[in-house]
């Protein structure tokens, strides 16, 4: 499948929805698209190295990533520790980027990626130039959600 800029957002969005469904059993859909949406307290990122360059990030509230992690690793939510939650979010980033990489054939959009990393802090934002391509989605099921941002 050749990916063009307009399809790039759907490829990342569909990949993440598929991964969450397969690893946790939750069905997610796009809840909102917001160019300026803020991050939640748990954030994992990965560099996308290509002609276009870029970064992918996922963020979630502690209660939401705790629930997703609980279903992913099969332990009660009160037994999930911070490291487990960070590992889960990082694994979602890693699997999403890997899934997208397999789907892209357009050389301008093909990428290699770094190891995922965790950013800690509150009220963090990423500011970009006006003409920067940005995918920004909040995905969820009405009870729990996760934010996806891809900048390229």
What's the SSE blueprint?
Elements: H1 5-24, E1 29-33, E2 42-49, E3 55-60, H2 62-73, H3 82-103, E4 112-113, E5 117-119, E6 134-140, E7 145-151
Antiparallel strand pairs: 1-6, 2-3, 2-4, 2-5, 3-7, 6-7
Overall structural domain count: 1
CATH C-level category:
Alpha Beta
Number of helices: 3
What CATH architecture do you see? Answer: 3-Layer(aba) Sandwich
Helix amount, in percent? Answer: 25-40%
Q: Describe the biggest sheet?
A: 7 strands, antiparallel
Q: From the alpha-carbon coordinates, what is the Rg to the nearest angstrom?
A: 15 Å
CATH H-level superfamily:
CheC-like
The 3D shape can be described as globular
Order of helices and strands: HEEEHHEEEE
- Quick one: how many beta strands? 7
Average pLDDT taken over every residue: 87
Cα end-to-end separation? 19 Å
Q: Name the beta content range.
A: 25-35%
Catalogue the unreliable spans.
Answer: none
CATH topology: Chemotaxis protein chec
> Helix/strand-derived class?
alpha+beta
Give keywords.
seven-stranded antiparallel β-sheet; Chemotaxis protein chec; 152 residues; alpha+beta; single chain
How would you explain this protein's 3D organization?
- The protein has one domain (5-151): Chemotaxis protein chec (3-Layer(aba) Sandwich), CATH 3.40.1550.10.
- α1 crosses α3 and α2 (62-73) crosses α3.
- It has three helices and seven strands, in the order αβββααββββ.
- The mean pLDDT is 87.
- Strands 1, 2, 3, 4, 5, 6 and 7 form a seven-stranded antiparallel beta sheet that branches.
- It has helices spanning 5-24, 62-73, 82-103, and strands at residues 29-33, 42-49, 55-60, 112-113, 117-119, 134-140, 145-151.
- β6 and β7 (145-151) form a beta hairpin.
């Amino acid at each position: 499948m050749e990916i063009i800029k307009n399809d790039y957002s759907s490829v990342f969005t569909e990949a993440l929805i598929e991964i969450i469904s397969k690893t946790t059993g939750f069905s997610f859909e796009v809840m909102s698209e917001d160019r300026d949406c803020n991050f939640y307290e748990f954030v994992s990122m990965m560099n996308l190295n290509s002609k276009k360059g870029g970064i992918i990030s996922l963020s979630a509230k502690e209660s939401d990533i705790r629930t997703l992690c609980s279903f992913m690793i099969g332990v009660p939510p009160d037994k999930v520790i911070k490291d487990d939650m960070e590992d889960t979010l990082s694994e979602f980033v890693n699997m999403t980027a890997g899934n997208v990489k397999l789907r892209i054939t357009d050389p301008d959009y093909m990428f290699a990626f770094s190891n995922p990393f965790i950013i800690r802090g509150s009220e963090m934002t990423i500011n970009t130039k006006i003409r920067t391509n940005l995918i920004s989605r909040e995905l969820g099921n009405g009870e729990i959600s996760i934010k996806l941002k891809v900048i390229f």
